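Why does residue order matter? Because the sequence determines the fold. Keep that principle in mind as you read this record.
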Amino acid sequence: LSIQSCVSPRDRSIKEWEALEKQNQDWEVVKKDKKEEPTWIIYTRKIAGTNFLEYKIEGNIESTPEACFSSFKQDIHDLADQSSKKYPTYEIVEQSKESLLTYVIHKEPFPFKNTEMSVRYRFLSEADGSRAVQWTEAWDEYPVQPSKKLKRVQTFRGAWYFVPVSGQSCKAVNSVQFDPLKMPLLLVEPMVFNFLKNGLQDIREWTGK
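Structure:
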């Protein structure tokens, strides 16, 4: 199961993303918070002409786009600082104001091999205060010899968008896309739902400190 964003995020501005979201209305609600006023909603749609499915979670966060963006970015640095010989390991290979290149090894449950990823994060901003983080695989930028002990994740793409709505709050959207590789949705969707819900909850907790 490989996770990636709705389209390749390279050179995608926040305004372009918002315009596409307004044009593409074929989303189907698949799960939502059971509260009277849901704090999150998960949608899905199929990508025409491919085997990929797309999911996204939407929810408001009582914090600014800048705070949400900064907390996500800080978490990457914290993971890199805490890394040791035990998995997971995060290595920051290259960084600048606009992007971050990482090499990551994740521990997977037995009997699966641990996975390795090379990921490029790109940081975007707009004049209205919107912020975004987009990531994609970067094996061409950081080539590593394949290891028989590790399973290489060839594609890993995703994006967070934080758009101001009022005062000190923002709308947060995390969209992902993956090829289920013949795995039944009964097994795939619970993993995707947890991935999306946990990501949103993490940022709410980080910015609420």
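The radius of gyration is 17 Å.
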